[in-house]
Specification:
Layout (H helix, E strand, L loop, with lengths): L2 H28 L9 E5 L15 E6 L2 H13 L4 E5 L12 E7 L8 H11 E12 L8 H10 L10 H5 L5 E10 L4 E8 L1
Parallel strand pairs: 1-2, 1-4, 2-3, 4-5
Antiparallel strand pairs: 5-7, 6-7
Helix pairs in contact: 1-2
């Protein structure tokens, strides 16, 4: 089952499944956008737009998603909240933007969803300006962590909704231009983490 197809099916129930469980950490993550007036911010994998009600004023926002059904919900949410955001249909693993286009790339619950998280992080790095930041909120295994059950269910669940086997440090190895500024465990005994990267 392809990502676009599965999230088209999930679109009507996605918010009820995930909004409440992630809202507090979304808000905490988005506070990192305070005092970013006039900076270009890309929201990579915006989904149904759960971040939109909590976006601070000031930055110029662009949001992308591969699933039209999810993007349609994001458009409705943006209209409800009078949020000025340029929403585009795009694949986070092959972004339609020039190199060094954005000051900040926001990646909430997307690296553990896409088929190739390595490629998604590489693309985020490519379109990020030198000195720019990537702000991540997602679930990752630690290097060498057994996590038997998470690894066991991954071959099935990765085709429906999300991966449960992604090791962030392995992704970072593919992007030598990126350095970790902050890495904070925030949920489920550190499975979910809030990470900030800077492009050298």
């Amino acid at each position: 089952m392809g990502l676009k197809f599965s999230y088209t099916l999930l679109a009507p129930i996605y918010d009820s499944m995930i909004a409440k469980a992630t809202q507090a950490n979304r808000i905490k993550s988005l506070q990192r956008l305070n005092n970013c007036d006039n900076q270009n911010v890309l929201i990579n994998g915006i989904g149904s737009g759960l971040d939109i009600p909590h976006l601070p004023a000031g930055p110029d926002y662009t949001g992308v998603d591969i699933t039209p059904a999810m993007l349609s919900r994001a458009e409705q949410r943006a209209a409800q909240h009078d949020c000025l955001i340029d929403l585009q249909l795009a694949d986070v693993m092959a972004l339609p933007f020039d190199d060094d286009s954005f000051d900040i790339v926001l990646m909430h619950l997307i690296l553990a969803v896409v088929p190739s998280p390595q490629q998604a992080l590489k693309e985020a790095c490519r379109i990020l300006k030198p000195g720019g930041r990537i702000l991540i909120y997602d679930k990752f295994l630690r290097p060498g962590q057994l996590a038997f059950f998470r690894r066991l269910i991954n071959p099935v669940i990765r085709h429906i909704a999300t991966r449960t086997d992604v090791v962030f440090e392995h992704l970072l190895e593919q992007c030598p231009q990126l350095s970790v500024v902050k890495d904070e465990p925030v949920q489920i005994n550190g499975w979910f983490r809030m990470i900030e990267l800077v492009k050298n």
